[in-house]
Amino acid sequence: MTAHAASQAAAGTAKATGFRRGVSSADWWIIGLLLAFFTLNFADKAAIGLAAPDLEKDLGLTAAQYGLMSSAFFWLFAAGAVVLALFFRRIGWRWSAAGLMIAWVASMAPLTVPTTVGVVIASRMVLGFFEGPAHALCQSVVADRFPSERRAFAGAVVNAGSSVGPLVATPLLTWVIVTWTWHAAFVVLVVTGAAWAVLWLVVTRREPGMGPRGSAPDPAPQSPAGLGVGDIDVPLTSLLRTGSFWGLALLSFAGYLISSLKVSWLPSFLHDGMGYSRGTVGLLATLPYGLAIVVLLTAGLISGRMLKAGRSARAARGFLTMGYLCFAGVAMIAFTQVPPGGLQLALVVAAFSINSVAFSVAFAGAADFLPRRHRPGFFGCIIAAYSVAGIVAPWLLGVIVDAADTVSQGYADGFLVVGITICVFAVAGGLLLNPARSREALLAETARRRAASAEGNR
Predict the structure, then answer these.
(1) What fold, for 24-216+227-457?
(2) Residue 207's pLDDT band (boundaries 50, 70, 90)?
(3) Which residues cross the membrane (predicted)?
(4) Which of 166, 255, 367, 438 has minimal CB crowding within 10 Å?
(5) pTM
(6) How many helices (H) and strands (E) does the chain have?
């Protein structure tokens, strides 16, 4: 088949299925719903941190025990990220998103009434399992529906939910907890999640590209070199051996160190470590989330403009993300070295506002060399890798706080270690992420495999 004939065939297939490569208003509606999806995803994460003082009091927990209970969310996170992401390839994005939300609602329901430590841990484990593939699902939909130069911004809009969720939930759920109990906060989340699932199923009922895997062609988004990823035909294991996979994993790990500590420990740090009242904490804890939205959308726009200006994907995806994360790490190190006050608070806000760049800007670079059929598995494996940060960081910080002479010194020691780790992982990940080099290596492997296959058929 000639190149022209192949192009015509692809166009005909796209027309028959109704799948569009151009960006339409329907694409942005889907992005809006995914933004709400991600908002709820992070609102339920924030709820446990906001309820921490009441949980510790009601259940008689130490800081280390609370940290361990908080980390239970991530114990099955990696398994869910890989297993469910691969399964969702077969049922399509519409039912995948709806199924995840229904599972979230069911897992949070036991926390709406008085409960025990065991039930809380089990609930968080189940919730973590079903939230594992959420990011992979959202990024796969973005990669399907947006071209390379607009993908980072679209992904940033969706990932803004990681800040919008806690930004909205923090004052609202704090008020609910103070007015009633921490159980009432989960009632609000359960009702809101059920409403989203119904709305999603109604809106996406006839939307092209949201059905089963076979309902849409394998799109071929343009790489910086002007070639589609449809040229690449390698097994998933080959993709996992690329430097870009490990670069994404390290950048995401650094970002998730910030994310996991922000939702599990930031309110307690502001209250116990910096001395702010519960009411003030409800307002101050929203500042990093508000700034994070601006940072995330700005980073997405900068990345897209860098590509349009002719900069490499390595610079627009890897180096840009590395720079943002290193800034966050340095700010975290700095706030452990200054006394309480306005400067320390400003550094805290800065450090905790740059966690999501890795999950939108850096992830957008993967689509430059990643075939559609491998996206769920590839993203699932990265999520499994960075989820380790969510398992270790909350528990380890609790251990350090308990071991220190004072609570304030414990927080300072813990965040100093985390800040250094963020910088190390960010630099290593930024240097390894190179979409163009990974594409060249995968194309070369594809050619070798095809040549070997042709030789074997002779």
Answers:
(1) Growth Hormone; Chain: A; (1.20.1250)
(2) low
(3) 26-43, 63-88, 100-122, 180-203, 245-266, 286-307, 319-338, 344-366, 378-400, 412-433
(4) 438
(5) 0.73
(6) 23, 0
